[in-house]
Amino acid sequence: METEKKPKTEMDQRFIDAVHKLMEELSIDSERAMSIQLGRHPDFINRVKHGIQSAPAEAWDLILHHGSQVLLIEVKDSTNTSKKGVSLAKGNAIGTNHGIATMNYGTVADCEKDLRLARERIEQLTSQLQDKERIIQLLEMQLKK
């Protein structure tokens, strides 16, 4: 009798759950496609799911900190607005089968909008970092007491 293969750890199971949630948000129906979208080997998610390997910190970072906002870019073309996936893999996607090549924006207004959104995101992340630093300082003060 063969035992069911499960993730190595509870954290790996949480990773798989987070990946499936993100796949649903992005309408990606294949774990292999999602693995490639994360810049990993096509069998990466399957290997984590079956306990062959654990999810590394870099993969967690992509799932938790970037989420669907980074994985999706809204591209306006002459006929309609569509969403295209962008590979988060390091390196250039052109000439490979990993992800979609760099997107070209049609107008300056599109670039300005993306710049504004990026600046807002930077402000949000800076604020979160400051909050975390305050929390760390408070916890350190409590430990010293």
Summarize the structure in words.
The chain has two domains: about 1-105; about 105-145. Helices cover about 55% and strands about 5% of the residues. It has helices at about 10-25, 30-35, 45-50, 55-70, 110-145, and strands spanning about 70-75, 80-85. The chain has a two-stranded antiparallel sheet with strand order 1-2.
Task: Describe the secondary-structure layout.
Blueprint: H1 10-26, H2 31-37, H3 44-49, H4 57-71, E1 72-76, E2 81-85, H5 108-144
Antiparallel strand pairs: 1-2
Secondary-structure-based class equals mainly alpha
Mean pLDDT: 76
Q: What count of domains describes the coordinates?
A: 2
- Largest β sheet strand count, sense and barrel closure: 2 strands, antiparallel
Biggest sheet strand order reads: 1-2
Task: Give the uncertain stretches in residue-range form.
Answer: 70-98
What percentage of the residues does DSSP assign to strands (E)?
5-15%
DSSP summary: helix tally: 5
Q: What is the helix fraction of residues, given as a range?
A: 55-70%
**Element-level helix/strand string:** HHHHEEH
Please name the defining characteristics of this protein.
mainly alpha, 2 domains, single chain
Quick structural overview:
By secondary structure, the protein is mainly α. Helix content is 57%, strand content 7%. The protein folds into 2 domains: 1-104; 106-145.
